[in-house]
Design brief:
The complex is a heterodimer. Chain A has two domains: 10-47, no CATH class; 55-158. Chain A is built from two helices and ten strands. Chain A has helices at 25-47, 158-168, and strands at 10-11, 18-19, 59-66, 77-80, 83-94, 99-107, 118-123, 130-135, 147-149, 151-153. Chain B has helices at 9-34, 38-48, 53-77, 84-122, 125-131, 136-174, 179-189, 192-219, 225-254. In chain B, helix 1 crosses helix 6, helix 2 packs parallel to helix 6 (136-174) and helix 4 (84-122) runs antiparallel to helix 6. Chain B is mostly helical. Chain B has one domain. Classes of the chains: A alpha/beta, B mainly alpha. Chains A and B meet through helix 1 of A and helix 2, helix 4, helix 6, helix 7 and helix 8 of B.
Chain lengths: 190, 255
């Protein structure tokens, strides 16, 4: 094969035998190794990434306007009762009304969402990622492709809550005068 | 002033870096010619990759397990154990998978390559190869270099998969975390391009660096038993330093 077709006697590095050709199991072993490596890559790419969440069925789009989306990102899940039904496809600013227009891609399996359903932005856990939670309404009409959810609730911002609490929430009155350092939030639990 | 500039350690260090750079150019230039020795390349991939599978898989399993254990107790301080899958996967994909695999391969395969080529030099086999009008760079150096570049990312993927498995074993089976939470948080956070492919680029570079250092040290080893021994040691030391330094630089560029 190599060295101009002259058969070369060589010592096999691993068995110590003197042989004409490298062991054929090199090819088999190498092939198995390469296949295993690519299988591991395919496993990582499809099972541990957001690719695993992409619905294989077709989707339809629903819009919702929020005055503040907080930390919501494209690709964030859309959930009803905690079950993932789709994902956030795009987020853009509506120039006239100066609010955020969130387009969600919903799986075709979940076609009968009442058209008076409301959308809210929740946080998973205390400091986790944000997602869109849909509260189903009672209307007999269902949302269709391109429809807009009218009832929305913006992201709750922890800073706003703390600010409100510091202004109004102190238990024994005079809370607005208290400096933040002397009013630890833990004391205000009812 | 030292009597001769060539005995200054700093000058010698700079010269060694320069030699290694020139050697890299020579090896890379010999890559097209070495493709006709694909059988040798195949054997080297088998040696660097397939033979490293056992150590890489075992270490990946234990790294994933210890990562899950440590992070579980850290995250439970903040009540964030739901993020265990995410944190284990991101640490493995972005950092530990490429780096630990590179260090393992430097220790297992890099040393063997250095000792093999160093002994080839010491027993005049490299000269014998050139006497047969075969370029030793194309027949000996380039296949080993290419094998490292090809095998390292695949090994890192296997390491990552085993690490995820180990993390799942500890987090879900042992510590009782919810299976759906573990996978759900992981799949919603891990990104194919930003996390997995960036780690893959890293390990391709590490594969080139480790195998280049191993081949260079073997090629330039003094033809004595002591010289080969020192070169083998230097392969591990230099590979580890350069891999960790490159890791910092590449992470700084990627994030």
């Amino acid at each position: 094969m190599h060295a101009a077709g002259i058969p070369v006697l060589r010592r096999d590095t691993f068995t110590g035998d003197i042989c004409m050709n490298p062991r054929p199991s090199y090819a088999i072993g190498t092939g198995l190794f390469i296949l295993l490596g690519f299988a591991a890559l395919a496993y990582l790419a499809t099972q541990t990434t957001s690719v695993a969440n992409v619905g294989h069925g077709s989707t339809y789009e629903i819009n919702a306007r929020f005055s503040n989306i907080g930390q919501l990102k494209e690709g964030a899940p859309v959930k009803i009762a905690g079950v993932r039904i789709g994902y956030v496809e795009s987020i853009r600013l509506e120039p006239q009304r100066m609010d955020a227009l969130v387009t969600m891609a919903i799986d075709r399996h979940y076609e009968d969402i009442p058209d008076d359903s409301s959308a809210a932005i929740f946080t998973s856990g205390l400091l986790g990622d944000q997602y869109v939670g849909v509260q189903p309404g009672g209307s007999p009409e269902f949302l269709k492709n391109g429809d807009e959810m009218v009832l929305t609730q913006s992201a709750m911002r922890l800073e706003d809550l703390i600010g409100k609490f510091l202004v109004n929430g102190s238990p024994k009155g005079g809370g607005s005068a208290a400096p933040p350092s002397s009013a630890p939030p833990a004391s205000g639990n009812p | 002033m030292s009597s001769d500039l060539r005995h200054n350690w700093l000058v010698r260090g700079v010269a060694a870096v320069g030699e290694c750079g020139l050697f890299f150019v020579a090896v890379a230039g010999a890559v097209p010619k070495s493709l006709r020795y694909w059988r040798e390349l195949c054997r080297q991939i088998w040696f660097v990759g397939a033979m490293s599978l056992v150590i890489v898989m075992t270490c990946g399993l234990f790294v994933g397990m210890v990562l899950a254990l440590q992070l579980y107790f850290t995250l439970s301080i903040f009540g964030g154990t739901a993020a265990l899958g995410t944190v284990v996967a991101l640490s493995l994909f972005r950092e530990l998978g490429p780096v630990v695999t590179a260090l393992l391969v430097a220790g297992r395969a890099g040393t063997a390559v250095t000792a093999e080529i160093g002994l080839m030099r010491a027993t005049d086999q490299l000269d014998a190869i050139s006497m047969m009008a075969v370029d030793p760079l194309a027949y000996v150096a380039s296949p080993r270099f290419l094998a490292g570049v090809i095998a390292m990312p695949l090994l890192a993927c296997v390491f990552n998969a085993m690490g995820i498995f180990g993390g799942h074993l500890v987090g879900v089976t042992w510590l009782g975390l919810d299976n759906g939470t573990f996978w759900g948080n992981m799949t919603s956070t891990v990104d194919l391009y930003r996390d997995i492919l960036d780690g893959l680029y890293k390990s391709i570079v590490f594969g080139g660096v480790v195998s280049l250092i191993a081949v260079f040290q073997g090629y330039t080893a003094p033809p004595t038993s002591e010289g080969v021994a020192y070169s083998t040691t230097r392969t591990v030391v230099f590979s580890s330093i350069v891999v960790l330094a490159f890791d910092f630089v590449m992470t700084a560029f990627m994030t």
